[in-house]
Amino acid sequence: MRPIKRAILKLSGEALREPGSTDNISPEIVSRIAGEIQAAVATGVELGVVVGGGNFWRGASASARGMDRSTADYMGMLATVMNALALQAALEALEVTCVVQSAIEMKNVAEPFIRRKADRHLSQGRVVIFAAGTGSPFFSTDTTAALRANEMGATIILKATMVDGVYDADPKLVPSAVRYEKVSFHTCITKQLKVMDATAFSLCMDNNIPIIVFDLAPEGNIQRALCGERIGTVVQLEVEA
Questions:
Q1: Exposure string over 39-72, b if 16+ CB within 10 A, otherwise e
Q2: Which region, left, alpha or beta, applies to residue 125 given φ > 0 means left and ψ of -120 to 50 means alpha?
Q3: All structural domains of the chain
Q4: CA-CA distance, 160 to 175, in Å (whole number)?
Q5: DSSP tag of 58
Q6: What is the pTM of this model?
Q7: Contact 38, 52 (CB under 8 A)
Q8: Fewest CB atoms within 10 A around its CB: which of 3, 46, 141, 200?
């Protein structure tokens, strides 16, 4: 794997809430994640963060219940901005310099996403939190992470989830499911492994950007992933037989 100079961390919205809680955001969990990001950037890695909004709203779910899909997706994009602001506040409390860039312009709370400006922020050691998805409906925040990784010249995507990697079946439904240590993009797409959507996988496959899928819950896993420790699953272009 190439040396990690610049990475994109993908956080789900659900990662910011306490499991089983009715609160959308847990300040304690957000603070813990901010502490891990602080430790990661202290190593010199340039880090961008893409955050989802599923703890507040899921456009696809609302669409399935009759809402116009575009409207539902725009609402989901706004949910990601709330999560981005919460993470920004937690990072600033730790004196980590960071900025939120939104794909939907809202100048009172965030910078607009401008690729060259984001690149400059990262080069200067600032954490950039990319909010509001791609700014267009019908695209997930997983696809946003793949898109921003390509735009920013990141060498890897860290996909922090609630499971410890990619399995050949849903481990919640199939107890005998086997976790991959390494798996190819082609296998993920053809077997429809749902850890990320096909558009995100295709973007990374076309530009040879590996993805590390790992469990966010164990403390220190973000830094472990950046340091090349064997955690989770590496999704990459080819897997040796």
A1: ebbeeebbbbbbbbbbbbbbbeebbeeeeeeeeb
A2: left
A3: 6-236 (3.40.1160.10)
A4: 22
A5: -
A6: 0.93
A7: no
A8: 3
Token code pair at residue 136: 């267009």
195 within 8 A of 166, measured Cβ to Cβ: yes
Rounded to 5°, angle at Cα 28 from 23 and 29: 80
pLDDT in tens, 106-153: 999 999 999 999 999 999 999 999 999 999 999 999 999 999 999 999
Closest CA to 55 of 15, 101, 89: 15
Q: What is the pLDDT of residues 40-65, one digit of tens each?
A: 999 899 999 999 999 998 888 888 88
**241, containing H or E segment:** none
Query: Pairing state of beta strands 211-215 and 156-161?
Result: parallel
Please check whether residue 87 is in contact with residue 50, taking contact to mean a CB–CB distance below 8 angstroms.
no
In whole angstroms, what is the distance from residue 157 CA to residue 47 CA? 10
Strands 211-215 and 233-236 come out as antiparallel
The pair of structure tokens assigned to 19 is 């499991």
